[in-house]
Design brief:
single chain; alpha/beta; Rossmann fold; four-stranded parallel sheet; binds beta-D-galactopyranose
Length: about 325
């Protein structure tokens, strides 16, 4: 008999937890404490910048907790696989999360993810990879938090153009450059590539592209590509532009191995302002970088998610500024 009562109690408890979970946006209240569930999917964990970003999402949520409000934040690794990410979103929605924060694997798949969220009436905050389609985020409770990739590219170009010799390391009148790109589907990679060079051209500086290849934001690939470009084009390379600091760290190793010296016979710029790169900028082994403000962006994304939880609205696109980092 006792066993039966216990089983019935378990069933009732499980049922009531299920009910409050499925109400979406209302959290689960127990003993006067409301817990909101947040589903976060990051395009891949093995990415320097997104690691800082996702850790800050978690610690910022924690810092906003009170005696009566808690956040249960479930952060998943999409392993650079769009199908995997779509499954993660399905299971977050089945669990009845209150809000989603999504760093898309492919920004072109945004419509599919938004349709899932809209159908389940769960708000979604996109981060880092901006959905660029004309009709993007077709849902009143969907928004994007990020930074203007054109600005980061422009700052990279300006860092070079503001050097006394305007980046023309060998003084032959033309800035010859190597471009190491992130993944080309990503607007950050496209605009940083385009606008870094545009900033030089706009200042009337003659440029020539020697080499351009994708390194997918990855340090080892950055090193490989820079080594191959330096082997191919030798002393004529004046500047190595990298779409991020991860790849610039790799390029810095390749530059040292090729017996070239940053600041003397070659220049090197990245984006993100990883701590170790900021140190290198200070000691001159990197020409400059651009702060990709993971703290500002993660806090803004979390604030937007909490506004949705509290039935408030957000602007469709919320932008955080980049900043130049030079010695
Ligand atoms: C960029 C960042 C890169 C990489 C990429 C992932 O904004 O600069 O380092 O994290 O996002 O989408």
């Amino acid at each position: 008999m006792k066993k039966l009562i216990a089983l019935a109690l378990v069933a009732i408890l499980a049922f009531s937890a299920g009910c409050s979970g499925s109400s979406g946006g209302k959290g689960v209240t127990k003993d006067g404490v409301t817990t909101y569930r947040v589903g976060v999917s990051i395009y891949k964990f093995d990415d320097n910048f997104m690691t800082l970003y996702r850790n800050e999402i978690q610690s910022y949520f924690k810092s906003l907790e009170t005696a009566t409000v808690k956040y249960q934040v479930n952060v998943q690794d999409a392993k650079n696989d769009m199908a995997e990410q779509a499954n993660q979103v399905d299971s977050f929605l089945a669990q009845g999360v209150d809000v989603l924060i999504i760093n898309l694997v492919q920004s072109s798949s945004e419509a599919t993810i938004t349709a899932k969220a809209k159908n389940a009436k769960v708000p979604v905050v996109y981060i880092n990879r901006e959905p660029m389609e004309a009709n993007a985020m077709d849902y009143e409770s969907a928004c994007y938090v990020g930074a203007d990739a054109k600005q980061s590219g422009t700052y990279q170009g300006e860092i070079i153009a503001e050097l006394p010799n305007k980046g023309d390391a060998d003084g032959d009148g033309t800035v010859r450059y190597v471009m190491i790109m992130g993944d080309p589907e990503n607007v950050d990679a496209q605009y940083r590539t385009e606008y870094s060079v545009k900033a030089l051209v706009d200042k009337g500086i003659a440029v020539e592209e020697l080499f351009k290849q994708r390194g997918d934001w990855d340090q080892a690939k950055g090193q490989e590509l820079a080594a191959s470009a330096l082997a191919q084009f030798g002393a004529s390379v004046d500047v190595v532009f990298c779409n991020n600091d991860g790849m610039a760290l790799g390029a810095a190793q390749a530059i040292a191995s090729a017996n070239r010296t940053v600041g003397k016979d070659i220049y090197l710029v990245g984006v993100d302002a990883l701590d170790e790169v900021v140190e290198m900028v200070k000691n001159g082994t990197m020409t400059g970088t651009v702060l990709n403000d993971h703290i500002g962006q993660s806090h803004t994304a979390v604030d937007a998610a909490i506004k949705y939880i509290n039935s408030q609205t957000n602007d469709k696109r919320i932008m955080v500024n980049y900043q130049k980092v030079v010695a």
